[in-house]
Amino acid sequence: MAKDHSKNETNRETEDTLTNRQGHPITNNQNIRTVGNRGPATLENYDFIEKISHFDRERIPERVVHARGAGAHGYFEAYGAVGDEDIAKYTRAKIFQEKGKKTPLFVRFSSVIHGGHSPETLRDPRGFAVKFYTEDGNWDLVGNNLKIFFIRDAMKFPDMIHAFKPDPVTNIQDAERFFDFCASSPESFHMVTFIYSPWGIPANYRMMQGSGVNTYKWVNKEGEAVLIKYHWEPKQGIRNLTQAEAEEIQAKNFNHATQDLYDAIEKGDFPEWELNVQIMSDGDHPELDFDPLDDTKLWPNDQFPWMPVGKMVLNRNPQDYFTEVEQVAFGTGVLVDGLDFSDDKMLQGRTFSYSDTQRHRVGANYLQLPINSPKKRVATNQTGGQMAYRLDRGPFQNPHINYEPSILDGLHEAEQTGKEYTPMIKGNLVRESIDRQNNTKQAGETYRNFEQWEKTELLSNLINDLSKCDQRIQDKMISLAEEADEEYGRLLREGLKNAPKGGSSQHPLGDVDGEKAPQQAVENSH
Ligand code: HEM
After folding, report:
1. On the chain, which terminus has fewer CB atoms closer than 10 Å, C or N?
2. 104-146, pLDDT tens digit by residue?
3. What is the Cα–Cα distance from 318 to 270, expressed in whole angstroms?
4. In Å, what is the CA distance from 442 to each residue of 89, 299, 346, 378, 386?
C-alpha cells in the first residue's frame, strides 16, 4: 500500500509536468470545474482563478516613450586606452582601464513615439540604451542613434512628446502638431534636418550608430574632470532608408528590425560597435560658437576627434522578451566611480525622470529584478515595498541593524577610491535659456554634408508633411531653412509653393538638381 502510494507520487510529476505557481501539478488544464459538465462554475476554482487573474495582469504600463524595442545580451571589451593616450589620465572608471577586460552588458534598441507593436519603419529617432554590469555596479548609457536632440531644456520634454504623439482627439499622429511645436522651438531645426533625411529611418538596429547625446564628465584619480560625448560606431556599416524603401518593407514586415537583430545573433553573426569618445576640457568654452552643454549641437570632429575606448559585441538573445526587454530599466543617473554628470540641463532633467517612471512602470523594487540587478554584491538598508523578494542586506549583517550609522554593527560607508570631484558653482538662480543658441548654423552644415540623394529625400519628405500644415507654420519652417542654408531654404520654399495642398505620397519635388535618388541606401557618417 505504502509502496504503491510513493510510486503514484513519483509518476505524478516529471520534469515537464505543468504546475501552478504553488507547485501543485495541474491534472486538467482544459476544463473549469462546474456542477455537471453543463453546470455553473464554482468559486473555489483555484487553478482557473489563479490562471485567469494572472493573465489579466500580464501587461505593465508601456514606457511613456520608446515603447517599441528589441534587446540583446553581450559584452564590452576595453582597449585600455583612449585613442593612443593613457585613459587613466582622464577617468578612473575601472571598466576602461585594462586592455581586453570584458564587462557583460544588455542593450535595448527602440523607436520613440508609437506603442509597443508599432512598425519599425517609422521616421523616428531610435533608442540605443546599454546597461554595463561593471565590477563597481551598473553603468547605463542611455542614448539614441542620432547625436543631437530636438530640445535643450528638460522643461520642454512633455510638450514635445505630446506634440509628436497622436492627437488626443483623433488618436492619429499629425504633422501639423509636430511642425507647430518645431516651428515654435527653433532649436529643434538641426534635429528636424536629420530626422526628415534618410537618417530618420535607419535600415535596422545593427546598422545604426549610437550616441549618448548629452554631455557627461570623466573624473580621474586626482579629482579632475573633462567633458565627454559618447558615440557607438557599428562595424556592420551604417545604412539608412529612403521613404519609399521603408514603405516597401513595412508593407511586408513591420517587425523587420527586431527580426534582423534576433536572426543575426541566432546564426552567430554577432553585431559589434566600437565605443568612441570626444573629449573637451571642462569649462564653458567661450571661444566656441555653441555651448558644450547644448545637446542640439554636434562637437565638430576636426576639433574634437572621435577616440576609440573599446568595443561591444552582442552574442546572446533574450530568453524571454517580457522579463528582460520589457522590464529592463535604464537611467542616466546610473553612473559608476570615474563617470559624472555635466550641467547639461537635459541630462539633469532626464536623470530624475527615468527612475521615477520605472517605480511607476515596473514597481518600487524594480532594481531587484535579475535584468536590472548588478552582477555584484548589493547591500543596502532599503527594505519593503511591493514585490520585495530579497533582503538586500549582506549575509553577514546583524539582522537587527537596518540603519546606518551604528556603533553596534551594520553596513558601513565605502572608502573613496580617488580624490572627490568638487566643481565650484556660483550664480543667481534663474529661469533662462543659454546664450550662444545658434539654432540654424549647424543645420546648414549638416545639410551641406548630406549626399545629393539625402538632400533630395530630406526636401521631399519635408515638403510632403509641411504641405499639410497651416501657412504660418510653413513660413516659419522656410525661414529657419533659409537661415540655415540658401539652397535648403530656396528649395523648400519652391517645393511648398508647387506642392498639392494636404500632401501627397508622391515626392512633390521630384529629383533635386535632376539627380536620381539611389534606391539602395549608402554608407555615410557624420
Ligand atoms: C526612455 C524621459 C530625453 C533616450 C525614456 C523614458 C522616459 C524618458 C520617462 C521611459 C523609461 C522607462 O519607462 O524605462 C526623457 C526625458 C528627456 C529624455 C524627460 C528629456 C528631458 C532623451 C534623450 C535621449 C533619450 C535626449 C537620447 C539620448 C531614451 C531611450 C529610452 C528612453 C533610449 C528607452 C530606454 C529603454 O530602452 O528602456 N525617456 N527622455 N531620452 N529615453 Fe528618454
Report:
1. N
2. 999 999 999 999 999 999 999 999 999 999 999 999 999 999 9
3. 14
4. 31, 10, 19, 45, 48
Supply the ipTM of this predicted assembly: 0.97
Decide if 428 is catalytic. Answer: no
Q: Would you say how long the chain is, in residues?
A: 526
Do 208 and 144 contact (CB within 8 A), yes or no? no
Mutation to probe ligand 1, out of 59, 60, 64, 65 (largest number of atoms < 8 A from CB): 65
CB of 66 closer than 6 angstroms to any ligand 1 atom = yes
pTM of the model: 0.93
Task: Give yes or no: 117 in active site.
Answer: no
Q: In angstroms, what CA-CA distances link 227 with 169, 342, 355, 394? A: 44, 7, 24, 36
Residues 106 and 115 sit within 8 Å (Cβ to Cβ): no
Ligand 1 in contact with 108 (CB < 6 A)? yes
d(CA 180, CA 470): 9
Nearest atom in ligand 1 to the alpha carbon of residue 213 is: 28
Q: How far is Cα 439 from Cα 186, in angstroms, rounded to an integer?
A: 6
- Output the pLDDT for position 10: 55
CB of residue 473 inside a 6 A radius of ligand 1: no
| Burial status of residue 318 (CB atoms within 10 A of its CB: 0-12, 13-18, 19 or more) | buried
Residue with cell 462554475: 41
Are residues 434 and 291 in contact, defined by beta-carbon separation less than 8 angstroms? yes
Q: State the SS3 of 385-433.
A: CCCCCCCCCCCCCCCCCCCCCCCCCCCCCCCCCCCCCCCCCCCCCCCCC
Name the range with the highest mean pLDDT among 25-39, 438-452, 508-522: 438-452
Q: Which of 73, 114, 138, 144 is catalytic?
A: 144
Give the whole-angstrom CA distance, residue 522 versus residue 152. Answer: 30
- Which of 68, 142, 294 to mutate to test ligand 1, by most ligand atoms within 8 A of the CB atom? 142
